[in-house]
Amino acid sequence: MYSRTQNDNGTYNTRCLYCFMTVASAVETPEELEVEEAEHLCPEKALAYMLAHDRASDEHAHRN
Ligand SMILES: [Zn+2]
Questions:
Q1: Ligand 1 centre and the CA of 63: distance in Å?
Q2: pLDDT score for 37
Q3: Mean pLDDT in the chain?
């Protein structure tokens, strides 16, 4: 989920809709946007993953 905008000079910006961080700015091609977006390590998604992982290890601890 990314919000792409185009600048007056024809370059692009892309912003992550989960963490609202600007992933890339002044990117010249849509192909490069794809690359930048793919490389974005979203802190919001990482947090959600960590919380899910914590829950899983808690359940494991209770079983022991
Ligand atoms: Zn993000």
A1: 34
A2: 97
A3: 91
**What pLDDT is stored for residue 3 in this prediction?**
97
* Residue range(s) defining the domain that contains residue 54: 2-63
Question: Cα-atom radius of gyration of the chain, to the nearest Å?
Answer: 17
Please give the structure tokens belonging to residue 49.
């993953």
Rounded-to-integer distance, Cα 48 and Cα 57, Å: 14
Centre of ligand 1 from the C-alpha of residue 61, in Å: 31
Q: Residue 58 Cα, ligand 1 centroid: separation in angstroms?
A: 27
Q: How far is CA 29 from CA 24, 33, 34, 57, in A?
A: 11, 7, 9, 43
Q: How many domains does the chain have?
A: 1
- Model pTM score: 0.73
Distance 41 CA to ligand 1 centre (A): 6
- Pull the structure tokens for residue 27: 């990117």
